[in-house]
């Protein structure tokens, strides 16, 4: 039974706020995100698209 740990949840639980902002602590290997963080990431990506929201 393999338990996948959400990358963002892992950082929140194991790193301090300052460490989370440090690129040295970013783990590119962790790609799994829980549904909550996945939705949040999609939301951020959708909003940061320049030119897309120009009506
Ligand atoms: Zn998460």
UniProtKB/TrEMBL annotation:
<protein>
    <submittedName>
        <fullName>Uncharacterized protein</fullName>
    </submittedName>
</protein>
